């Protein structure tokens, strides 16, 4: 799993992540299931900043997660300083892909890719990517090409 460079990270969000005592397993490191929660926290921050969930629900749809892939690079301990980064890496007609990285003390600890889409709240069927999100993503992509 490759993480692209910072200049191509559409709509990136950054989150300082506290390591809690309940995040630690019997080996004294952050349990692998905690990374899933951290990815959820990052996606919620992404939604807060770029595509608010309450507005989606009012418009009759919501995002869904179709898959998660995580590659662990190094363990994280309770005393480590953790930062998460998440960005929109691809946007198709029906599906989106986000990438994330978790840094521990400024070193890469994990990388992740998640895929999903949007479903109608009326019939639970996949709908096309909302036009506003497409425009926002395209504006970022065009900005990269101009530089």
Characterization of this structure:
The chain has 147 residues and is of the alpha+beta class. The protein has one domain: Thiol Ester Dehydrase, Chain A (Roll), CATH 3.10.129.10. Helix content is 28%, strand content 38%. The chain has three helices and six strands; from the N terminus they run βααβββββα. It has helices spanning 32-50, 53-58, 131-146, and strands at residues 10-17, 61-72, 82-91, 95-104, 107-120, 126-127. Strands 1, 2, 3, 4, 5 and 6 form a six-stranded antiparallel β-sheet that branches. The longest helix has 19 residues, at 32-50. The chain starts with 9 loop residues before the first strand and ends with a helix. The mean pLDDT is 92. Pfam families: 4HBT_2. This is Acyl-CoA thioesterase. InterPro entries: 4-hydroxybenzoyl-CoA_TE, HotDog_dom_sf.
Brief digest:
This protein has 147 residues and is α+β, with helices and mostly antiparallel strands. It has helices spanning 32-50, 53-58, 131-146, and strands at 10-17, 61-72, 82-91, 95-104, 107-120, 126-127. Strands 1, 2, 3, 4, 5 and 6 form a six-stranded antiparallel β-sheet that branches.
List the helices and strands and how they pair.
Layout: E1 10-17, H1 32-50, H2 53-58, E2 61-72, E3 82-91, E4 95-104, E5 107-120, E6 126-127, H3 131-146
Antiparallel strand pairs: 1-3, 2-5, 3-4, 4-5, 5-6
The Rg value, from CA coordinates, equals 16 Å
Largest sheet: 6 strands, antiparallel
The portion of residues forming beta strands comes to 35-45%
Q: Terminal Cα separation, in Å? A: 26 Å
- What is the number of independent domains? 1
Shape: globular
Query: How many runs of DSSP E, i.e. beta strands?
Result: 6
The CATH class is identified as Alpha Beta
Protein name: Acyl-CoA thioesterase
InterPro entries: 4-hydroxybenzoyl-CoA_TE, HotDog_dom_sf
